[in-house]
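Async update (no meeting this week)

Hi team, since we skipped the sync, here's where things stand on the single-chain job. The sequence we agreed to prioritize is pasted below, unchanged from the tracker. I ran it this morning and attached the output directly underneath so nobody has to dig for it. Comments welcome in thread, and please keep replies under the output.
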Amino acid sequence: MSPTSPQQTLKDVFGFDDFRGGQQAVVERVLDGHSTAAIFATGAGKSLCYQLPALHLPHLTLVVSPLLALMQDQLSFLTRHGIVAASIDSTQDRDTTRDVMERAKSGELKILMISVERLKNERFRHFLRQVQISLMVVDEAHCLSEWGHNFRPDYLKLPDYQREFAIPQVLLLTATATPTVIADMGEKFAIAHDNVITTGFYRSNLELLVAPAMEDRQQQLIEWLKSQIQPGFEAPTIIYVTLQQTAEQVAKALAAQGIAAQAYHAGLDSQRRDEIQRQFMGGVSSCIVATIAFGMGIDKGDIRNVVHFDLPKSIENYSQEIGRAGRDGLPSTCLTMAGRDGLRVLENFVYGDTPEYAGIYRLLEEIAAAGQAPDRQWEVLLNTLSRDTNIRLLPLKTLLVRLEMHGIIAPRFAFLAEYRLRYHSEPNELISRFEGERAAFVRLLVDNIPIARTWGTVDFDRLHHAGQAQQIDASRARVITALEYFQDKGWLTLEGKRMTDVYEVCQPEFAIETLASQLYDDCLNRERIEIDRLQSMLTLFESESCLTRRLAEHFGDSTFDAPLQSEQGRCGHCSVCYGHPVRLPEAPPLPTLSDNDFTRFAAPFIQRHTEQLGQPPNAQRLAHFLCGLTMPVFSPLKARSISGFAVFEQRGYPDVHQWAEAMLSLGG
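Output:
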């Protein structure tokens, strides 16, 4: 055996005697030059499938990852094993980013990790064109597919980037992909069927339980947990909920019963979230009550219980979340406390992401107007565009990528719209460091960036006009280059904000109405897919055949029968195999909506909307308000403070929308 063989590297660098599952098959295919997909169960060792080949490939391995936390965890692992790897992310200063780029160019780096959003920056893409790349790795690759549960629009561009940077092969990694998603991923990157390696989703150590939710679900959870978390044996447990307020309520109730639980959700600041996660990972605290904000990148082997207090968002989410249990191979329990009462909330989240047709039309009007300018450049401040079109950020990003795919727009570069600075010494001292035209240029900067107390705001138009008057080049590019140089030298502090994306309008002449209708239909189709996904999940939990088998079948796992010791086709360790199939209790009936409800809950919002925007809201906007689904337009209206906001969050959005439409047509 050659000392540089993959098997030897596995032992010498990673400390393993043998590959696990499908790892060897993936590594061999990658090193043979094939684009490959690795569909491995959670915790089955996907990361090794790129980490090991990266040490044998001649050039850089570029890893595209969806979350900063995932990148940091993997970088820590690589550093511990002496592998030269780095990331470029939004938390870094310019010096750090520049150093990473230089190390990549020189060939020192073996692995570079980035977020998919980084590829939208034209300067970064220019840097990548100067670097030889052997392999592009796409982590959480199911995000590529619109049929997947966590579709991310920016992932759609990755096949184009592979061609643009002349990357010879790709490796796709995911734990949750149905046969449809796998086929979609393979088609996008031309991956041969033989080069798709799956390990199977069956895990014999996971006990899958579904219990009908009782009226007092909180007490039901407490009683179940007390048998699982004994003093001196606090089994590490994750409890998943849908809403932030539920996380707080449940954690408080558990703590009152002597179960040391902490709430974890996106409403907490990042420092507090990091602290809670560290305590859980280190064994200081044993129970986390979390929204799905918790879990990505969590690699804790001894999680004994994963409880779904509320319904998960999809079968794929369920699979991913229970996959965090029992990674050490020891018995672990996954309990779903299922009822249909939470279904409406999940469905409403789906409806909440569908934009108004008028917003899409407004977006296209703005693009068409930018296309009439001589340079056909369109500057986009995402938050401002979201507010102006009343389209939430995620669907807005999806629409922009769709417009790229239609060839209407193309991203060119990004810049910070606003800069401010603070001098570290007297401005005249800065001028004295230069001579001739450079000194005149620096004096122009000093004279035209007025300081208010300690900070001065850079006005690029003012500098440009002042430069024209003195026949000095004071273009934006030169000003930024100079100020960044001054900061590098330690002569001043420079701060930037308001990231602006610049697109080129490639097709300035397009039929706005036709395209708006097409894009709106795409949004409605996406809505239907997500609602169907929720229904599929309910069908799984109400299954009368083995839950484990049904879950494996959902992901196209044909290896299910092989490892089973019990009756064929049955796992022997799920609710159904124990003889307890469930029927999910229906949500309690709600009273019929009345004229009085409209006057009481809808009228205050209609009044403020009409006063501030000059017209009453449409039915879609009113239904969003009543169901507590945010829209950008709600911020200036201070909609959350209006009586009636979220009063119908437990009602189905279609019913509220239909009622609002009928009432508005009658004149309220």
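Quick observations from my side:
The CA atoms of residues 236 and 286 lie 5 Å apart.
DSSP finds 26 helices and 20 strands in the chain.
Reply here if anything looks off.
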